[in-house]
Amino acid sequence: MISLQNVSKAYPKGVTALDDVSIEVEKGEFVFLVGPSGSGKSTSLRLLTREEDPTGGEVYVAGKNLAKLSTWGGVPKLRRNIGCVFQDFKLLQDKTVFENVAFALEVIGKPKHVIDQRVPEILEYVGLGDKLNNFPDELSGGEQQRVSIARACVNRPLVLLADEPTGNLDPNTSVDIMRLLDKVNKIGTTVVMATHDQAIVDAMRKRVIELDKGRVVRDQSRGVYS
Amino acid sequence: MRRIEYYFRETASGLRRNGIVAFAAMSTAFIALFLFGLALIIGRQLSLVIDAYTRNVEVAIYLTDPVKVETVDRLQATLLELPAVAEVAYENKQDAYERFRELYINQPTIVENTDPDAIPASLRVRLADTAQYDQVAAAMGCAPNEQTGRIECTQPGVREVRDYSDLLDRLTTINRVLSRGILSIAILMLASAVALVANTLRMGMFARRREIGIMRLVGATNWRIRTPFLIEGLVEALIGAGLAIVALFMVKVVFIDRLRGQIAFLPLVRNADLLAIAPWIVIVAALIAVIAGLIGMRRFLDV
């Protein structure tokens, strides 16, 4: 599903974010990317959505070489197959829960009847069936993250990328969010999650890829944080 | 349908949010397009005057009635032999009257008070070298009468020869200077309009950078993201164009229509002339929007 082949990423100022990284992730896998700040976790995720281009090597998602995608058609299509979740939720404060999730479908041209059907469905799925008309600032952090997961999943992506999704949440809420991500994974979505959260990685016992200074230093199935 | 509704909604909210900046863009577009239209109208008005007074040629040879075909042929042949003559065209009495009526279609009293028979047939001569008018006069046998001082022509069939080259030259110069002057101000204003429209687009995109970020994230195409802003620019420019067209009509009513009846034998621009200019104003407005869109969104939207 995801394949990084000898990928390097160097920034103009001489910072090397990734150095000859090769990673294979199969369809339906759940993978943790761990490592200290600046080890290249976020950069790896940004390469997968083609927000950035590698300076060396090749990136494949769902069999497609990302370097060959066109900006006008290919890249948007790629991103429709990838859901993204962030530490800071990235919700629109002037839109309700329903509207935030609907926005993701609306801007890719989905018809109204699809939106009216799928949005309540996915919000029910993430446990927010009764908060459709609330605004983000009326929700707890955990609930906001659920909205953002709903938005990421509403278009039924093949891959879900999560960048520190529990970084702003307390431990109990984090466990709830991990249960939800696990649930999303169980229905076949490939999940890649970059995190610092040792407790969560240790509890989940999933595949762990550890990066340090832009290199893969460990790749372990059913691993722990360190 | 839903897509159109989406774009419409996005555009309306963009214009509302941008308020005063959008107003600045619109009014600059308005002034620019107004000046552009004004240059076109002045050009049109002057070319009407030029046409009425000189028929756009340097020399007119009026013929005596009744005009014989042989006379026309003979005179044409004579004229064409002259090195100073570039072109000769014959206009018969009916054509001359038709043209006269057409020029003064807005001033029916002038037309009604003119006897169709009073307008002579003529040969219209375009000179290759305007300084060589004397050649034409000599060929037509024209010389000042020693007693009356009036110029009389001895060639049979010729009533009168008139040299318009000086007048034509002057009118064309006035036309050129006025049109170009106004046009260059208009171009300056058009450039400002482009900059201001581009600026509203850029501000709009900045205000909505979070939305745009999410749109990109979930795979909205570039066109989906850009179109509302393009439409916003287009609406601003087109409102400017609409106001400019209205203002040009007002200029015509207030200034040009006042001249009617004040100066005899002065053809004036008509509503039809303004209507012919209107599409050009709209096209230029659309160009403003497109160029502003290219400039305003260039940096912002690389995926």
Describe this structure in words.
The complex is a heterodimer of chains A (226) and B (303). Chain A is an alpha/beta fold and 226 residues long. Chain A has 7 helices and 10 strands. In chain A, a hairpin with a 2-residue loop joins strand 4 (56-61) and strand 5 (64-65). A 4-stranded antiparallel beta sheet of chain B has the order 2-3-1-6. Chain B has a two-stranded antiparallel sheet with strand order 4-5. In chain B, strand 4 (142-144) and strand 5 form a beta hairpin. Chain B is elongated, with a radius of gyration of 28 Å. Classes of the chains: A alpha/beta (226), B alpha+beta (303).
Q: How do the helices and strands line up, and which of them pair or pack?
A:
The complex is a heterodimer of chains A (226) and B (303).
Chain A: E1 2-10, E2 16-25, E3 30-34, H1 41-48, E4 56-61, E5 64-65, H2 74-80, E6 82-86, H3 97-106, H4 112-125, H5 141-153, E7 159-163, H6 171-186, E8 190-195, H7 198-204, E9 207-212, E10 215-220
Parallel strand pairs in A: 3-8, 3-9, 6-7, 7-8
Antiparallel strand pairs in A: 1-2, 1-4, 4-5, 9-10
Helix pairs in contact in A: 3-4, 3-5, 4-5, 5-6
Chain B: H1 2-54, E1 59-63, H2 69-81, E2 85-91, H3 93-103, H4 108-112, E3 122-127, H5 133-139, E4 142-144, E5 151-153, E6 158-163, H6 165-207, H7 209-217, H8 222-259, H9 271-297
Antiparallel strand pairs in B: 1-3, 1-6, 2-3, 4-5
